[in-house]
Amino acid sequence: MAVPTSKKSSDLLVTLADAAATLSAEHPFAPFFRQGMEIEIELYAPVGTDGQTPHSRDELYIIATGTGTFSRGDELVNFSPGDLLYVPAYIEHRFETFSDDFKTWVIFYGEKREQP
User: Is the pTM of this model over 0.90?
Assistant: First the structure.
């Protein structure tokens, strides 16, 4: 099986450090990969509070750095680096508490859905 090759490393690899360097308190997220409406990958690093609202697509969070607590509906869980969190479309969720070094990869996938 042939391994795909790329002339630019940015086509193949996005490091956490390079992605994080594009974020700021005013812009706490940045998209890094999108393939149509099937999948979108962002890095998210809120400062102070997490002000996000429910989304129209299912999503996964893969915790890159930091620790804290995450709420989804009436559930609350602790998280740390390497953890995976799942949120169905239109479910209230947010990072309730998080350390100053908190960063998470966000993967939106599937078709946008109508709000129930």
Answer: no
Domain tally, the chain: 1
How many angstroms separate the CA atoms of 8 and 76, rounded?
41
Domain that holds residue 95: 15-109
Non-local (6+) Cβ contacts of 66 within 8 A are 80, 81, 98, 99, 100, 101, 102, 103, 104
- pLDDT, tens digit (0-9, with 9 covering 90-100), for 57-95: 999 999 999 999 999 999 999 999 999 999 999 999 999
63: domain CATH number is 2.60.120.10
| Mean pLDDT value across residues 8-32 | 79
